[in-house]
Amino acid sequence: MSAPIAPFPQVDHQRAVFPDGLALDCGMTIAPLAVAYRTYGRLNAARSNAVLICHALTGDQYVAETHPLTGRAGWWENIVGPGRPLDTDRYFLICANVLGGCMGSTGPREEKTDAAGRGLGRPWGTDFPNVTIRDMVRAQKRLAEHLGIERLLGVVGGSMGGMQVLEWAATYPDAVFAAAPIATAAHHSAQNIAFHEVGRAAIHSDPDWRGGRYWEDGRVPAKGLSVARMVAHITYLSEQALTRKFGRRLRGAAALTFLEDVFEVESYLRYQGSTFVRRFDANSYLTITRAMDYFDLAAEHGGDLAAAFRGTKTRFFVSSFSSDWLFPTAESRALVRALNAAAANVSFVEIESDKGHDAFLLEEPDFHRALGGFLAGCADRLGV
Amino acid sequence: MPDDIRPTERRGAIRYVAKNMRLDLRLIAEMIPRGATVLDIGCGDGALLAHLTAEKGADARGIEIDMAQATQAVAAGLAVIQGDADHDLAFYPDGAFDYVVLSRTLQAVERPREVLRQMLRIGRHAIVSFPNFGHWLLRWQLVSTGRMPMTETWHREWYETPNIHPCTIRDFFDLCALDGYVVERWLAVDDRGLKAPWTRSPWLANLFGEQALFLLRRG
């Protein structure tokens, strides 16, 4: 962690480029717009079996294949595949790297452009405009149109992905037949914003961050970014999960010596931090955490969350996990009640799990059964 | 204990879950016209919802307090939320449904009168079934033993029964009159859900009917 880490290698991501760009909520237009994406399964002739997966804060489009940077399995391979809940034999699955991300979509790592879309020969860095969850969704809409899809059978995602799902349903209700916001909320809470701010402060305080211009001398603010990841990682786990995985065990010692003792939980967090900086851009982290903090779907609709969904024909599957304290069940229940108030068709289950927020990524058979059943029911109804 | 009602215990809460309610549900389904919008409160694994969707083209949704059953229903592709009659009805808009169903649950809710009021606010019709505490066997047991009756339907000790608001058929008629609900149809059934022949006399039904089924609308 102490050695300087070079910016991670360029990977040739699959991309759709839109020269006319995208008008952002902040008033700026960013051009060209690049959306990096991956697809799995086959689009049927009627183009009616497309399901968009929205990734979380530090996720990316490599949902169900080996990651080109880390060499690790896709982040949702337990859900996406033949015969799995997001069945690649039945659905055409799409996942796009979010606007502001660092896996090939337009973001702080990509070359800065001027108002005419001309490249300026250096990255955006902290000049990258503030984007919103709705901007991310608009970029995904462009990709869907580019792929010839007018209406998505489903939009599915957890955490920040769930925020995008809600924004999709609110912004493009006729383009979403089924929506599955998972382990998420209709706004980012004060506590969530507070944790994000700790992460951002860690990045800002790393001397290698250099006001966001760290690329100029080929460094990355690895210390700051890894601390941000360590803090965030705690929020993704439950107290029970930490206790079960690590307890008070020491690394390589049976008892405290009061010298160089390292608890296993410390060692684990350091490892999480150090691997993260090899695949994620610090300015992207700043941009995306801000987008999440800005998110407040009710505020976008006059303070009334139900108004965001009034008259919707979209079918909803809301799911939370009992030990998730980052996006607790109460947030999902508030969302369900707003959907009920809007007379929407909604299913809701809280999955019993001690794995915390991360549960949506892990092996949770009840969750997989419910999500798969919901989507299959919607597909049956559409004759997919 | 009848085979159609079994207690389940989950997270400390004791609750009755219908296992084999097909005849009972069929009577309810008969009251619901094709294409209706329906909310089934305490829908269990969604048997009635599945029937109404498949056979009657209904837009049928459910609320179930037991998470395992709610998950099972959602996994079957039904629009079910985990929730309960006492706390979740207030969030639905007025007149959202043609029919709101509450089967064999009224006696177990915290505030039955408020639940009924909510049902007839969000639904144009309410269908309510409940076990009749006025049945002759219960009366006889109370008189002859001086203790709380124990029958196939009322089979839990008084200190652990979830059925905290038992009522009789005549009590229910009184509540409907008090709150101005119109009883469009009613019938008494036996524990297997078969119709019993006392519909002309509430007095006799209250003595011999084990279960009651009411179709109500706002007055």
UniProtKB/TrEMBL annotation, chain A:
Substrate binds at R229, D358. Pathway: Amino-acid biosynthesis; L-methionine biosynthesis via de novo pathway; O-acetyl-L-homoserine from L-homoserine: step 1/1. The keyword Phosphoprotein does not apply. GO terms for cellular component: cytoplasm. InterPro entries: AB_hydrolase_1 (IPR000073), AB_hydrolase_fold (IPR029058), HAT_MetX-like (IPR008220). The active site is at S159, D324, H357. Its EC number is 2.3.1.31. Gene3D superfamilies: 1.10.1740.110, alpha/beta hydrolase. One of its GO terms (biological process) is methionine biosynthetic process. Its main location: cytoplasm. It holds the Pfam family Abhydrolase_1. Keywords: Acyltransferase, Amino-acid biosynthesis, Cytoplasm, Methionine biosynthesis, Transferase. One of its GO terms (molecular function) is homoserine O-acetyltransferase activity. The keyword Acyltransferase applies. It is found in: Cytoplasm. It catalyses: L-homoserine + acetyl-CoA = O-acetyl-L-homoserine + CoA. Residues 49-363 form the AB hydrolase-1 domain. Homodimer. Belongs to the AB hydrolase superfamily. MetX family. Transfers an acetyl group from acetyl-CoA to L-homoserine, forming acetyl-L-homoserine. HAMAP family: MetX_acyltransf (MF_00296). This is Homoserine O-acetyltransferase. It comes from Roseicella aerolata. The lineage of its organism: Bacteria, Pseudomonadati, Pseudomonadota, Alphaproteobacteria, Acetobacterales. The gene is metXA.
